[in-house]
């Protein structure tokens, strides 16, 4: 955990500098570009299977560390198998709940090899296992020693058990509010506040329970070590929720313009106020907070759709999908905003190629229009191909710009795929298929880099089709659009 | 598809953790 903290606190500053250097000097100095991409992802040359496996092994090692810790020092009286199993599951469960803070603290070193969407998905899935372990811990402790049933009674139980009761209730609050947020009528930021505060409570009361029981934690140095681990994970919460917002306050943005776009979307243009801006690579995203309060829980990740060569303003293209995004059009120019980023690995700067193929589904065009604008601003002379899938012709966001300005400035071929076209539509119809890909991809398909952004079912189908069409797996880069609403 | 992989990976991690806990319990209770 300490290694995570160290790497997490060092990496962002290095990466920020590298990104700015990388994007500004890219055309002038290839060596700088390579150096920049090395710093953003020092493991970029390691095969992705190895990277993924190393991450999982590290996760398992940290989760199981409490059991290893037990083997050090004097051995307490042995208890029954079921009791020991119950205790082991409790220790490991608490350790997993602590690691949830590491996963969501937005450290680049954690999310970069996988992508933030995958990390959040893992955070959700693994929480079911952690809750299962905690419940199994409670059941086994009572089943192994039936007299322990008194520990479940808040009125008669000793304080060490009451701490456990409080932690369990808070854990169940987290579970229920996460699974049924909409049904409970909780706004996104209310849910996030409840989620964060309850999570802190789970760790604090879980630790107090462990220290109160004492069996395996009776030695002072072990207690100190557990307390240190708890402080470490809680400090990540403080870092994300308090330190980061304070730092953001000195780098405010102002809404310059909100323009309606085709396909129920809005282009939100921001300009930095009194600072040079953050710099980004095309295709990356940032967390956006609208309003004067940098501490707000109302924040959402959006892809940059502006050119990364334009440092005066940044633009995000946002589709009306949820309770926050449907109000984008109501934001008045001049409104204060905060931008935390850049984030993300979906960028051609990490996967340089002479020719690119882009596949966008609906609002998935957002990062891709940013990439195309950047390539045009850099005077790129590669041959690029864009497959753009939409429901109807009217939904094609940025159609005029793609077919007009961008097609003039770039060697860009555009293939529109329309699910429900009008009768006089002459382009591709239905869903993007292997047949369509084969019709438009050339013999050099194995040498290009592929950037896909859209809803998950579409991307899954396109990945299969691309693989069948002979495109190597490692040349396909993805950004799913289903993180949050 | 990546999300399907994640479901399997998460299940694998869960199984590994429970297995390690069972081994731990056998060792400590023995």
Describe this structure as you would to a colleague.
The complex is a heterodimer of chains A (485) and B (30). Chain A is an alpha/beta fold and 485 residues long. Chain A has helices spanning 2-25, 30-40, 48-70, 81-104, 108-111, 116-144, 159-179, 188-213, 220-249, 365-377, 399-409, 434-440, 456-468, and strands at residues 253-261, 265-272, 285-290, 299-303, 314-319, 336-343, 356-361, 383-390, 411-418, 428-429, 449-454, 476-480. Chain A has a 6-stranded antiparallel β-sheet. In chain B, 93% of the residues lie in helices and 0% in strands. Chain B contains 1 helix and no strands. Chain A binds chain B through residues 56, 59-60, 63-64, 67, 70, 78-85, 88-89, 92, 96, 118, 121-122, 125-126, 129, 132-133, 456, 459-460, 463, 478, 480, and chain B through 1-3, 6-7, 9-10, 13-14, 16-18, 20-22, 24-26, 28-30.
SSE topology:
The complex is a heterodimer of chains A (485) and B (30).
Chain A: H1 2-25, H2 30-40, H3 48-70, H4 81-104, H5 108-111, H6 116-144, H7 159-179, H8 188-213, H9 220-249, E1 253-261, E2 265-272, E3 285-290, E4 299-303, E5 314-319, E6 336-343, E7 356-361, H10 365-377, E8 383-390, H11 399-409, E9 411-418, E10 428-429, H12 434-440, E11 449-454, H13 456-468, E12 476-480
Parallel strand pairs in A: 7-8, 7-11, 8-9, 9-10, 11-12
Antiparallel strand pairs in A: 1-2, 1-6, 2-5, 3-4, 3-6
Chain B: H1 2-29
Most residues in contact, chain pair and counts: A-B, 33 and 21 residues
Compute the average pLDDT of chain B: 89
What is the chains' assembly state? heterodimer
For the largest beta sheet of chain A, what order do the strands appear in spatially?
4-3-6-1-2-5
Output the radius of gyration of chain A.
25 Å
The helicity of chain B comes to over 70%
Give the termini separation of chain A. 31 Å
Structural class of chain B: mainly alpha
- Percent in helix of chain A: 40-55%
State the end-to-end distance of chain B: 44 Å
Number of helices of chain A: 13
The shape of chain A is elongated
Look at the helices and sheets of chain A and give the structural class. alpha/beta
Query: What Rg of chain B, in angstroms, do the CA atoms define?
Result: 13 Å
Low-confidence segments of chain B? none
The residue ranges of chain A in which pLDDT falls below 50 over 5 or more consecutive positions are 1-45
């Amino acid at each position: 955990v300490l290694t995570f903290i160290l790497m997490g606190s060092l990496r962002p500053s290095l990466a920020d500098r590298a990104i700015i250097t990388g994007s500004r000097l890219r055309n002038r100095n290839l060596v700088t570009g390579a150096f920049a991409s090395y710093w953003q992802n020092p493991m970029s040359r390691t095969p992705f299977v190895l990277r993924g496996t190393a991450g999982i092994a590290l996760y398992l090692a940290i989760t199981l560390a409490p059991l290893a810790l037990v083997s050090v020092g004097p051995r307490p009286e042995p208890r029954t198998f079921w009791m020991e199993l119950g205790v082991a599951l409790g220790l490991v469960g608490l350790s997993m709940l602590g690691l949830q803070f590491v996963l969501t603290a937005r450290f680049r070193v954690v999310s970069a090899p996988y992508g933030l969407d995958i990390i959040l998905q893992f955070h959700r899935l693994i929480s079911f296992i952690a809750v299962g372990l905690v419940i199994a811990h409670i059941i086994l402790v009572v089943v192994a020693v039936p007299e322990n049933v008194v520990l479940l009674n808040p009125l008669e139980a000793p304080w060490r058990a009451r701490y456990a009761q409080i932690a369990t209730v808070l854990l169940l609050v987290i579970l229920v509010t996460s699974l049924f947020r909409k049904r409970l009528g909780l706004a996104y930021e209310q849910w996030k506040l409840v989620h964060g505060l309850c999570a802190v409570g789970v760790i604090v009361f879980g630790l107090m329970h462990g220290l109160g029981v004492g069996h395996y934690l009776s030695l002072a140095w072990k207690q100190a070590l557990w307390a240190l681990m708890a402080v470490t994970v809680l400090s990540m919460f403080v870092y994300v929720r308090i330190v980061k917002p304070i730092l953001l306050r000195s780098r405010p943005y102002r809404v310059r313009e909100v323009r309606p776009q085709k396909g129920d979307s809005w282009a939100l243009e921001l300009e930095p106020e009194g600072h040079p801006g953050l710099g980004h690579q095309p295709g990356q995203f940032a967390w956006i907070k609208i309003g004067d309060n940098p501490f707000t829980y109302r924040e959402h990740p959006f892809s940059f759709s502006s050119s990364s060569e334009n440092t005066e303003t940044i633009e995000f293209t946002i589709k009306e999908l949820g309770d926050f995004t449907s109000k984008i059009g109501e934001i008045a120019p001049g409104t204060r905003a905060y931008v935390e980023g850049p984030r993300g690995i979906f960028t051609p700067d990490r996967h340089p190629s002479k020719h690119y193929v882009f596949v966008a589904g609906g609002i998935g065009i957002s990062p891709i229009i940013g990439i195309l604008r950047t390539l045009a601003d850099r005077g790129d002379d590669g041959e690029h191909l864009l497959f753009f899938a939409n429901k109807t012709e009217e939904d094609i966001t940025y159609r005029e710009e793609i077919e007009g300005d961008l097609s003039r400035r770039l060697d860009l071929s555009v293939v529109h795929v329309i699910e429900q076209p009008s009768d006089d539509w002459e382009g591709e119809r239905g869903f993007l298929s292997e047949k369509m890909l084969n019709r438009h991809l050339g013999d050099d398909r194995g040498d290009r880099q592929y950037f896909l952004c859209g809803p998950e079912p579409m991307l899954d189908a396109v990945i299969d089709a691309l693989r069948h069409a002979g495109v190597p797996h490692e040349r396909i880069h993805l950004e799913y659009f289903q993180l949050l609403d | 598809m990546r999300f399907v992989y994640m479901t399997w990976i998460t299940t694998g991690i869960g199984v590994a953790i429970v297995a390690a806990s069972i081994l731990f319990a056998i060792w400590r209770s023995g």
